[in-house]
Amino acid sequence: MTDPHRKPSLLARLLLVALVRNHSRIRRELRDSAVETNRLKADIRQKDRELKDNNEELRMLKLEKLERQLEETTKDDRESIHLSAADAHKMTADMLLEVARANAEKDRMKESRDLAHRALERAAHSPSSTANAHSKRHLESHDLDLPSVKKQKHGHKKVPCTHCYQYKLMRKCDDGAPCWPCIFLGTECKRMKCNNFETGTCQKSQCTMAHEDDDFPDASLVPQGHVGQIIGPAPYVPKRVT
Ligand SMILES: [Zn+2]
Ligand SMILES: [Zn+2]
Ligand SMILES: [Zn+2]
């Protein structure tokens, strides 16, 4: 029997060499793979950094875009504010024009009122009214005409003018030609002739048409015809001042 420890067989030696070689190859491979791992890790870190940078860049880009949008919106707003300012300016001008018109209308009305007052004053100083001035009642209702005395004698009703009938002012219409509402409003004062105009021919004691003995001026009389009435309220006519 040979001693295996002192004298290894050739086969055993070969096996050992192969093992050692194999071992160092494996170790080399392990080392390589560790290096590779490290390299990969570094790579990943690098990629991570890059990604972060990219994100940062993206964020910046987004921010910039938002800022641009904001700027544009603000500009639009400013423009629209400019526009509404122009509108407001125009509106104010329209309103001022309206106020001016209203003032002109007010002046016009005041003028016609003054005119009416002046006409009244003239009438109060005319001989016909001074003749009747002894009676206050006379002055109030008949200060512009004489025929009222005759009318009362004949029992005829008051004869409203066509304007006062149309504008529901019969209660304010007096026996004047022109009547007080027509003086105040500056309207034409006309009365309709009764079909039985001649004295003594009209049998209606309550006839509201004009008759010969009412003594209205011929120019203020019109033939009988239809006159409609307004639907709304009567226009404003103040009490007559004497
Ligand atoms: Zn009248
Ligand atoms: Zn009238
Ligand atoms: Zn009559």
Automatic annotation (TrEMBL):
One example GO MF annotation: zinc ion binding
Keywords: Coiled coil, Metal-binding, Zinc, Zinc-finger
Record carries keyword Zinc: yes
Annotated zinc fingers (C3H1-type), start-end: 188-214
Source domain of life: Eukaryota
Coiled coil spans: 37-64
Ranges for domain C3H1-type: 188-214
Keyword RNA-binding: no
The protein, known as: C3H1-type domain-containing protein
Taxonomic placement: Eukaryota, Fungi, Dikarya, Ascomycota, Pezizomycotina
